[in-house]
Amino acid sequence: MGKIVRFEKSVADSILSSALHAYPNEAILLLRGKSAKEEIVINDILIPPLAIHGRGFSNFPRMMLPFDLTIMGVSHSHPSGVLHPSTTDLNHFYGRIMVITAYPFQSYDDIGAFNSHGERLLHEIIPDHQSTYEDKFAEL
Q1: DSSP state, residue 109
Q2: Rounded CA gap, 1 and 128, in Å?
Q3: Could you report the per-residue pLDDT of 87-131, keeping only the tens digit for each?
Q4: How many helices (DSSP H) and strands (DSSP E) are in the chain?
Q5: In the predicted model, what is the mean pLDDT of the chain?
């Protein structure tokens, strides 16, 4: 069995909102989280530096990214409604997962997670983790 991808609710909502806002252009976001043996938890998004968005494409210069092991992958939208990675998508795969959001960007069913071979991964929406003072202190 493959990995399962778990999105915190606020992250999934932000992915859908970003795609809807960019429409009819593609949106692109970096996905931050943690990976364990059989799961990846996505708990934050980042806007990539110098990202470009157009009809049918979105990209960013990877050399502008700092070294960050918490970046699990990239999310981008497909205004065409196709919820599957293209060959170009797979050739530009970055990180552990690729997330595609397909038009109409209205529900969590419009989100798909994929591995580097283009195979669909199971995913689910989980409640947001409420950080505590101890969590923030542990990150330092």
Answers
A1: G
A2: 26
A3: 999 998 999 999 999 999 999 999 999 999 999 999 999 999 865
A4: 3, 9
A5: 88
pLDDT, tens digit, for every residue of 45-86?
A: 998 887 777 787 777 767 777 888 999 999 999 999 999 999
Q: Per DSSP, which regions of the chain are E strands?
A: 4-8, 28-35, 39-46, 52-54, 57-59, 71-78, 97-102, 111-114, 120-126
Domain 4-139 has CATH 3.50.50.60: no
Q: Per-domain residue ranges for the chain?
A: 4-139
Rounded alpha-carbon distances, angstroms, from residue 134 to 45, 129, 131? 22, 13, 8
DSSP category for residue 78: E
Residue 57: CB atoms within 10 Å: 13
Q: Considering the entire predicted model, what is its pTM?
A: 0.86
Distance, in Å, from the CA atom of 124 to the CA atom of 128, rounded to the nearest integer, reads: 12
CA distances to 26, 82, 85 from 52, in Å: 9, 20, 19
Pairing of strands 71-78, 28-35: antiparallel
Query: Rounded to an integer, what distance in angstroms lies between the CA atom of residue 1 and that of residue 94?
Result: 22
